[in-house]
Amino acid sequence: MENNNFNFEKYSKHLSEIEKNSQKKLIASNSCNVCWRSWGKGTPLVLLHGGYGSWRHWIKQAIPFSKDFNVLIPDMPGFGESDDLAQPHTPEKIASNLADTITKLISGNDNPLLCGFSFGGLIAGHLSYQLMIRKLSPKKLILVGPGGLGAKRGEMKTMIPRHSKMTDKEVYDAHKKNLEILMFHNSEKIDDFAIHIQKHNTDAHRIKSRPISATDTLAKILKKQNVPLYVIWGEKDASVGAYLEDRMTILRSINPQVRFHVEFNIGHWIMYENEVLFNEILNNIIQD
Questions:
Q1: What is the DSSP letter of 95?
Q2: Which of 70, 92, 146, 177 has the highest local Cβ count within 10 Å?
Q3: Owning domain of residue 173
């Protein structure tokens, strides 16, 4: 860690180094413009970020997976550089706009791999269904710490709100603490880059994702499809807490062939907390 303050120049440059290798496109749907970034060529691998997030949630996967895949990462509608959606904000509406725009990035012969994190996990379930309607059946649906199963949320400390009267140091400390509460198990893994990303992401979100994640919308939409389903959790995922088995039971009742991977001693944002381990897990699932 540095000086408990933001180094915007350093970390914006770091982000730019990763982003410069991408193709960035703002694609119009019937409702809004969706910002997509893509890296590499091959089978499409679609990565959906979590709530209060952006494409940056996948900052440690974009380049590594682009060696073998066409990595496609949107800012979902209402987040990052994509347009807002008209209210009410629903997962069906978000997924429909993503599906409308992704069809302009992949061909009709492509069957993409879908992977969603947290709130993006429940949206991935809805996107999978929307793509099936459009005759683009996903090869696999991979969910990382997904919401939307109707299970109890893990007990955790209250997140610290930010406001305009805070100093930079107070904002920095609030973001660090919030990452400790929700996103990481090992606080030593929270570096200045993660805090920089967290500030960027939360500053740009316009959709309140938590009320949607608290519903059973993912469970309901999965009942309408039969896509190969894989689910990854960190054992110490604060959003899950003591209710992991409840989530497994719900998913098994929907899809008896579902496959689970629970990684010991790691938190919610698993693909940042230990990217080497996560990338190996994801690659093994893709190759399965």
A1: H
A2: 146
A3: 8-287
pLDDT digits (tens, 9 = 90+) for 216-240: 999 999 999 999 999 999 999 999 9
The β-bridge partners of 71 are 39, 45
Is 202 contained in some domain?
A: yes
Burial of 174 (0-12, 13-18, 19+ CB in 10 A): buried
Three-class SS state of 64? helix
Q: Could you tell me if residue 3 is inside a domain?
A: no
255 vs 277: CA distance, rounded Å? 26
- For the CA atoms of 124, 18, 261, 99, the dihedral, rounded to the nearest 10 degrees, stands at 10
Exposed/middle/buried for residue 57 (C-beta within 10 Å: 0-12, 13-18, 19+): buried
Number of other residues whose CB lies within 10 A of the CB of residue 259 = 15
pLDDT, tens only, 64-98: 999 999 999 999 999 999 999 988 999 999 999 99
Contact 264, 235 (CB under 8 A): yes
**CB within 8 A of 166, min separation 6: which ones?**
174
> Per the domain annotation, does 266 fall within a domain?
yes
Contacts of residue 123, Cβ cutoff 8 Å, sequence gap at least 6: 48, 76, 91, 94, 95, 98, 116
Which CATH number goes with the domain that contains 198?
3.40.50.1820
Q: Where are the beta strands (DSSP E) in 124-228?
A: 140-144
Cα 234 from chain centroid (whole Å): 14
Q: Residue 259 corresponds to which tokens in the numbers above?
A: 């496959």
In a domain, 1, yes or no: no
Count up the domains in the chain and report the number: 1
